[in-house]
Inverse folding.
């Protein structure tokens, strides 16, 4: 009997190295989580983190996703990468503003990923003994921080480092072409309305700055704000960039009588981002948004840059293949 116990212990030690370190991460709330091994069952109810998990190649750990993945324009892209999503077989126990606690518990997750402001849901899950990693993205450093944490949690640290190196390299490659001197003034327009925009403390402001432009609302502290047309006429932007909008496109603004005196409209320099999956500002794909802004802001410097090729190359590197 003694010999059997010794052999059993020997086999266990061979399988689990004695020096195996625990996985310790700190989420965006400042809460520290510790795991003896990478979580096998992950419920991810925020799309930025889901995108990161697919970039890491750890999607087999996903057992629950946000309902938005099935309802929004990102569905076709995820469906191309995951047959389970194509067939809508992965459960959807919530999204960015609602979580069905019972449905999450039923999935027996080792980890749940939520926005850190979903405090009530986080508290309910943690009271049930379910670890929650809270996320809050306000700039590119947070995007990098999230992917590093996800890499640690899924045992994909090396891939996380590789993804970040690639993104920073791509940003440097483009910034080298950015014209020095006069920086164009840019007005960003959210899909909710022509006068909804972003101020200084926003991801949008940082992207415009990285791309070598000037956010005309950069003197305003608010992350999201509503201005009036008089403000826009005074700021007189050289470019207008629209978030993807299914109800409106650049030609609508170009034909709007109230905007006719704006330099961007007179020069017909009004542009629209493609769907949210391609230039998600809260994932490493923000690099593509920066590239588009730079080409639109400095057309002569980027005359020979093919944005379609840039897009396909990025998707291939980030996801291992190109979503259709």
């Amino acid at each position: 009997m003694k010999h059997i116990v010794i052999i059993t212990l020997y086999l266990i030690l061979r399988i689990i190295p004695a020096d195996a370190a625990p996985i310790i991460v700190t989420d965006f709330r400042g809460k520290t989580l510790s795991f003896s091994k990478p979580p096998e069952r992950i419920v991810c109810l925020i799309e930025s983190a889901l995108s990161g998990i697919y970039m890491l190649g750890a999607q087999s750990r996903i057992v629950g996703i946000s309902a938005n993945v099935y309802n929004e324009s990102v569905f076709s892209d995820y469906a191309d990468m995951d047959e389970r999503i194509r067939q809508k077989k992965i459960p959807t126990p919530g999204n960015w503003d609602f979580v069905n606690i019972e449905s999450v518990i039923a999935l027996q997750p080792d980890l749940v990923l939520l926005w850190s402001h979903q405090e009530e849901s986080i508290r309910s899950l943690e009271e049930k003994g379910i670890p929650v990693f809270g996320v809050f993205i306000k700039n590119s450093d947070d995007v990098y921080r999230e992917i590093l944490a996800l890499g640690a949690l899924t045992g994909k640290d090396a891939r996380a480092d590789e993804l970040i190196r690639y993104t920073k390299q791509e940003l440097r490659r483009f910034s080298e072409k950015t014209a020095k001197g006069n920086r164009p003034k840019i007005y960003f327009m959210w899909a909710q309305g022509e006068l909804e925009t972003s101020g200084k403390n926003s991801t949008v402001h940082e992207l415009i700055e990285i791309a070598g432009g000037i956010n005309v609302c950069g003197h305003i502290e608010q992350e999201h704000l509503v201005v009036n047309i008089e403000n826009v006429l005074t700021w007189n932007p050289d470019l207008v960039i629209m978030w993807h909008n299914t109800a409106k496109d650049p030609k609508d603004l170009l034909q709007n009588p109230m905007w006719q005196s704006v330099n961007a409209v007179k020069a017909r320099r009004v542009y629209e981002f493609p769907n949210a999956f391609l230039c998600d500002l809260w994932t490493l794909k923000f690099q593509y948004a920066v590239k588009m802004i730079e080409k639109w802001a400095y057309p002569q410097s980027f005359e020979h840059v093919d944005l379609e090729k840039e897009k396909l190359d990025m998707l291939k590197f980030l996801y291992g293949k190109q979503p259709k």
